[in-house]
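thread: overnight batch results

M.L. [08:02]
morning all. the overnight job finished for the chain we discussed friday. pasting input first so we're all looking at the same thing
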Amino acid sequence: MTDTLDLMTPTSIEGLMVQNSLAWADDPRIRRILEDHILFLWNGNLSTRDLEAGESLRYEGDFVGLMRYIGQPPNYDWVNMRLNNISASFDWDGTRTSVYLVDQLQYNALIKQITTQLANKK
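M.L. [08:03]
and the structure it wrote out:
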């Protein structure tokens, strides 16, 4: 299995997630496009997960750990960080009482559209 995404080979987001759940999320071209579409995701079916007393603080500096604790798959870490206005897992300060979570179906559809367009660019 490769750690890089070959955007010239058409594939589905579901296939990418099974083969290497982080390959497409780590591609700087895809992240740049997603940054441009962050308002689209914000205005979608964004959900809010309330955090119980101590949950947020327990994961101070470890947003990824918080995501695993609340049951979010790893392939949504980066976009969930961006939706919560942080750029890295260690930016989570542990003071928030809720966390924003991306609508996974909407996000997967956007990723599929982006990867298809990038694959067809050549």
